[in-house]
Amino acid sequence: MRRVKMFSAFGLAILLASTPLVWAQNQYIGYVYPAGGQQGTTFPIRLGGQGLLYASDLVVSGEGVSVRLVDYYRVMNNQELALLRQQLNELRRKETTISDAMAAKMAWFELPARIGPPETAPPAAVASNNDSSPSEKELAKQKLIERIQRIFAEDERTPAVRAHMELVFAEVTIAPDAKPGRREIRVITKRGISNPLPFYVGQVPEVARKPMKTTKKPVLGKEHLAQRKRPPEEEELTITLPCTMNGQVAAGEVNRYRFQARKGQRLVISVKARALIPYVADAVPGWFQPVLKLCDAEGREVAYEDDFRFDPDPVI
Q: Residue 34: what are its φ and ψ, rounded to 5°?
């Protein structure tokens, strides 16, 4: 009888100890972009995943890297989106004003910083003597409109990968003396901690392309309709060496970078793709195989690689 009680208590202890581990698996992050930064810099990142409701913090392993949570976009149903669109149309009306409580809330609310090359701001219009500066309520109203517009811009009703639809926006600060190399980043929620993803601390300047919206689920025979395409001005990015380039590659897309080099100069071009995301959810065959091609100024191929020895990520 004593043995039975002992084993029952032991089994209960195992069950209680394993419950948080099982629960933690519900918090999943599929990607972080950009997946690192330079020492001594502060920059925005975004993470895509699922089960990230009630996200409260982010953490990076090691010392010298701090992360601050900025915003979170959850997946909304059709009814919620219809109501949100109705509210957006109402806010766009000039005579609509927001409440004092909402104005106070939006006064301290922070919109996520945009990722990518700095945008060229349009020339500011010259204000006349009769124009007055916008009130605090008007500024709060514009900020609320922009946040709703950003939510709609990220929404995809039929995503190819549902596991990436929830978005977490954060700001990373890397100390100048932070040890370079590979770290791990996780999202902390009130329900548990997410899986880790690689996050790198670098020593050279970094550039990042604009992030891409989650692709639409392709339909058999009409796969081309689901392909994401960048505008012509974003197809090629001019960079200065040495640097780290951060980008997202869609199905059938090519990321092009243009740089200057001189004869006899020794260059190393290394890709980290499988090292960042070993597994791609809902994909066939389930991973991404990057390919590197180096061309001269006339577009002639100079070098080509699709791996490096036993590593699937290529190096030239």
A: -70, 160
Q: Which of 136, 127, 133 is nearest to 105 (CA)?
A: 136
Where does residue 197 rank: exposed (0-12), middle (13-18), buried (19+ CB within 10 A)? buried
Contact 200, 208 (CB under 8 A): no
Tens digits of residue pLDDT in 173-198: 999 999 999 999 999 999 999 999 99
Can you give the pTM of this predicted structure? 0.85
Cα 127 to Cα 76, 124, 132: the distances in Å are: 40, 9, 8
Residue type for position 21: L
Quote the CA–CA distance of 139 and 133 in Å, as a whole number: 10
Tell me the per-residue pLDDT of 21-30, one tens digit each, with 9 for 90 and over.
444 458 999 9
Map tokens 């997202």 to a residue.
248
DSSP classification of residue 226? G
**Three-state DSSP class for 288?**
coil
Q: Which residues contact 42 (CB under 8 A, 6 or more apart)?
A: 171, 172, 173, 174
Torsional sign, CA 179, 183, 189, 192: negative
Residue 21's CB is within 10 A of a number of other CB atoms, namely 9
